């Protein structure tokens, strides 16, 4: 032990003991950089980034359910240009069933007949419920009722001893008691034009009416009034007595 201690003392005296190592400034900087964690700054999102996020958000977003009225219009428009329904009330009945019976069920409608016309029964039912109106614009999906739209066949006269016998005089029917046609409102414009779909002349078509401009068939490049019946031509002049507005009775809502 004494020999080892002396040897250590001798080394110290000779200057051979290990000294502290001096490090250059460059090496010291590298050591500091490795010792401290690097901080990454967030890059500014680009326009494409936001568009991508918006698309992802849209893909995950649930599609809102159509309102009842929009659903009625959508179901009705599926049959545009087709013969489905067979007649005006048959078409409305078809859409009513497909839309979940918003207008009536068969039981309550059957209790509203007072003649053979289903369109009249629909009107009677909505009148009893206080759902028939005429003095304001409708909503989409409402029914629209018309009167006296049937084509009356020519009445044959009978000859008796060289004289013609006139046909029996028909009783006068009140407007509200002679509902003969029904359709479904598909659009209501800000200028008061009401678009409706109905079964006419063998297929389901769109027609229009506007009480604000009864002497016009077109305004601002679009249809605003169309004809329910044909009128003799008068040099292109509008003839309101044959337009839909002349046969309109009421709207029916639910």
Your description of this structure?
- The chain is α+β, with helices and mostly antiparallel strands and 254 residues long.
- It has a domain at 74-150 and 174-252: endopeptidase fold (from Nostoc punctiforme).
- Helices cover 30% and strands 18% of the residues.
- The protein contains 7 helices and 10 strands.
- It has helices spanning 2-14, 25-35, 47-60, 68-77, 88-98, 106-110, 118-128; strands at 132-133, 143-147, 158-160, 163-165, 179-188, 194-200, 203-209, 218-219, 222-223, 248-252.
- The strands form 3 sheets. Strands 1-10-2-5-6-7 form a 6-stranded antiparallel beta sheet. Strands 3-4 form a two-stranded antiparallel sheet. Strands 8-9 form a two-stranded antiparallel sheet.
- The longest helix has 14 residues, at 47-60.
- The radius of gyration is 43 Å and the shape is globular.
- The model is unreliable at 1-21, 33-43, 57-61 and 153-176 (pLDDT under 50).
Portion in strands = 15-25%
Average pLDDT across residues? 78
The CATH architecture category of the domain at 74-150 and 174-252 equals Alpha-Beta Complex
Distance between the termini: 113 Å
Q: What string, H for helix and E for strand, traces the elements in order?
A: HHHHHHHEEEEEEEEEE
Poorly predicted regions: 1-21, 33-43, 57-61, 153-176
CATH topology of the domain at 74-150 and 174-252: endopeptidase fold (from Nostoc punctiforme)
């Amino acid at each position: 032990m004494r020999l080892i201690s002396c040897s250590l003392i001798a080394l110290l005296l000779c200057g051979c003991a290990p000294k502290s190592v001096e490090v250059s400034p460059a090496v010291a900087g590298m050591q500091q950089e490795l010792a401290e964690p690097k901080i990454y700054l967030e890059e500014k999102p680009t326009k494409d980034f936001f568009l991508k996020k918006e698309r992802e958000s849209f893909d995950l977003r649930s599609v809102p359910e159509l309102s009842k009225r929009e659903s009625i219009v959508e179901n009705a428009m599926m049959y545009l240009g087709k013969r489905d329904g067979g007649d005006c009330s048959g078409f409305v009945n078809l859409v009513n069933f497909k839309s979940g019976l918003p207008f009536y069920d068969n039981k309550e409608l059957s209790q509203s007949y007072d003649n053979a016309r289903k369109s009249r029964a629909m009107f009677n039912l909505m009148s009893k419920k206080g759902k028939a109106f005429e003095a304001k614009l409708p909503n989409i999906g409402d029914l629209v009722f018309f009167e006296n739209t049937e084509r009356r066949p020519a009445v044959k006269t009978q000859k008796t001893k060289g004289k013609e016998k006139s046909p029996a005089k028909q009783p006068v029917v009140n407007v509200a008691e002679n509902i003969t046609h029904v359709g479904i409102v598909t659009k209501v414009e800000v200028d008061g034009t009401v678009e409706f779909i109905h079964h006419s002349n063998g297929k389901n078509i769109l027609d229009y009416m506007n009480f604000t401009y009864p002497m016009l068939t077109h305004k601002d490049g679009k249809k605003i009034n169309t004809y329910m019946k044909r009128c003799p031509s008068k040099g292109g002049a509008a003839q309101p007595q044959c337009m839909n507005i002349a046969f309109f009775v009421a709207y029916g809502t639910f």
